Amino acid sequence: MAESGTPPLCTESYGSRRAQHYRPLPDGTLRCVPDRPEDQAYRSLRDVFMSIFLPQGYPESVSPDYLAYQIWDTVQAFASSITGTLATQAVLKGVGVGDETSTVAAATVTWILKDGTGMLGRILFAWSKGNKLDCDAKQWRLFADGLNDVAILMEILAPAFPACFTLIVCISGLFKCIVGVAGGATRAALTMHQARRDNMADVSAKDGSQETLVNLAGLVCSLFLIPLLADNLHLTYALYGLFTILHLYANYRAVRAVCMETLNRARLRLVLRHFLRWGKVPGPALANPKEPLLLGGHQQLRMILGAPLHTVVSSAADFEKALEQSSSKYLFFFNQAARTVSVVLHQRAGSVDVIKACSHALLQEAVLCEDVAAFTVERETLLGLQRRLQGEPSKKDWRAVSEMQQLLDRIFPAFLMGLTSAGWITDRNLLGPEEWRVDWTTDGKKSL
């Protein structure tokens, strides 16, 4: 065409997915020319699909791990939909659907008890663990899906134990409500991580659309499976086992695909140990795949961040001594007999101060429980501290406390700079401190 040799007046793009040029025509009008006109129909269909099921601006508007996570999340949702259908069929059979001797009142009472137990469990679980779900979103997400599979198994087996049917479905309902709280809360935490353009609502809505589509596919498959499973327990159990294995594997791959840049205790422990051993801080892409996914793992000392002062100090002398030996933003206390580290945070302690306090606790853990001879950063100082702490475990050695604080003060600036350079976010964290804060004074004036 004559205008093909004319340079375009401008180029327009829609994210990274589509580009087109505007060229002038002889009559003075503008013509829009796609980069590859032969793919226009394919692009139109693909763009419609992506606009329905993916956040606007994908892939720039989401985190780099979004696609891998969503693929495995789709697989696990399909497997869960199938096993959920098996459980629903078993529960309906257990409450008397199709049994002429059963009454509507008995079935209704069973359902009310099941739902009521679950509601109470939901409240209690949110009260006891709600503040921990953000900190360990991957671990709680995996826990929730494992517990969901246990609940489904209980519902499938419940009709085989008619005398205990109501008790079994009530416990199953309790588990499912816990799954609802843990799964919903961790999904929100992961959505916040994935949303990169203040588009958390869009990411969450499109995630819901993806899950709805998968559940529709699961329902269609279930329509073909239900007639085959009506009176075939062996096939029901076999399908449950097959789809449960797929469900757990897909969930493991989904949470393992998530690469979070905020520090929780597990990730801070990994990067601090790597820094002490090699003198450099690994980035999120290196640390996340090594993060343990089982709750409570790799914790050798109990750590209380934001501890109330009265739980660690019983005399003014101890308080004054702690002020002399600790940082201006936190006070550090270690009970070796109870293997507990308690950190009292200052009223004005910020995110970096909390990271430093947690690093102090993890450094204490490393000195007590690790082979510090393998470390390259401050190895001689660490070896001396380890010998002193292991030599007199029952004695409060304020000199060791002071040396540990001085050591941390020396290495933390380089560690913090390494965190920032490696891509970690330090202006907020997921270390989960308690809300207790203390405003102390030194020398008759504010310390800050």
From the spread of the alpha carbons, the general shape counts as flat
Number of helices: 13
Biggest sheet record: 3 strands, antiparallel
CATH class category label of the largest domain? Mainly Alpha
Secondary structure tally: strands:
8
Helix proportion: 55-70%
Strand content: 5-15%
Radius of gyration over C-alpha positions, nearest whole angstrom: 29 Å
Which fold name fills CATH's third level, the topology of the largest domain? Growth Hormone, Chain: A
What is the SS-derived class?
Answer: mainly alpha
Uncertain spans: 443-448
Kindly, what is the distance between the CA atoms of the first and last residues, rounded to a whole number of angstroms?
A: 73 Å
The domain tally reads: 3
**CATH H level of the largest domain: which superfamily?**
MFS general substrate transporter like domains
H and E order = EEEHHHHHHHHHEHEEHHHEE
The mean pLDDT is 86
